[in-house]
Amino acid sequence: MSELSINTTQNVKINFIAATIGERLGAFFIDLFIIISYSITISLILFRWLQLDRLMVNIDPWSERAIYIVIYSPVIVYSIFFESLFEGQSLGKRIVKIKVVKIDGYQASFSDYLVRWFFRVVDFFSLFGLAGLIAVVTSKNAQRLGDMAAGTAVITLKNKINISHTILEEIGDSYVPTYPLVIKLSDNDMRIIKETFKNAEAKNDQEVLYKLMAKIESVTGIKNQSGNHSDFIRVILKDYNFYTQHM
Hints:
This protein is mainly α and 247 residues long. Helix content is 60%, strand content 8%. The strands form two sheets. A two-stranded antiparallel ribbon has the order 1-2. Strands 3-4 form a two-stranded antiparallel sheet. Helix 1 packs across helix 4, helix 4 (73-85) packs antiparallel against helix 6 (110-118) and helix 11 packs antiparallel against helix 12 (206-220). The two termini are 33 Å apart.
């Protein structure tokens, strides 16, 4: 099990555990099963029961190809759609509990998922998937070629360095949140905020605390109502936990 160290732009070192080959293959085969199930189901409905192929007899080949592309487009965009929707997780990855993250500490963007999606042809279908498998086994951060191109890695969420464990804050049942716009942030954002906050508080670094507060305000549109940098960030952490636990 290899450890992945991420140095964020705030110079905070975060350690993750890279997903194993078994976890990645497990997620891949679950996704493949879902894709095959969809393809078989939609084919039975449209071509056996509704007999769509008979209606397509008199249309030109280009129109026929266009119809097939529309019908099977969910298969084509499956991975990029779900990874964008679930912030780095396909349905298979959610079940296996692994996730795509940026190796610079930021949340992966749509363009990152798009690069990974383009490279699937090379990683999974070149030499029966050997290209991607060899890349994961031999690379420092257990990255396939698509991950290297996108600057991402796949981590496991089933260990003590789990993202959710590190962002949890104790809040009582009677807790009343202050900043609803905090939900604009992601788990990864909160991980970085909490790590930076803890380090700055330990060193009593008011400049870093101020910069962290200003960054949160600029990204979320929230305005500090407490007048104190540390109190504001503590409330942000608790509010995020409140909203994510009650969504």
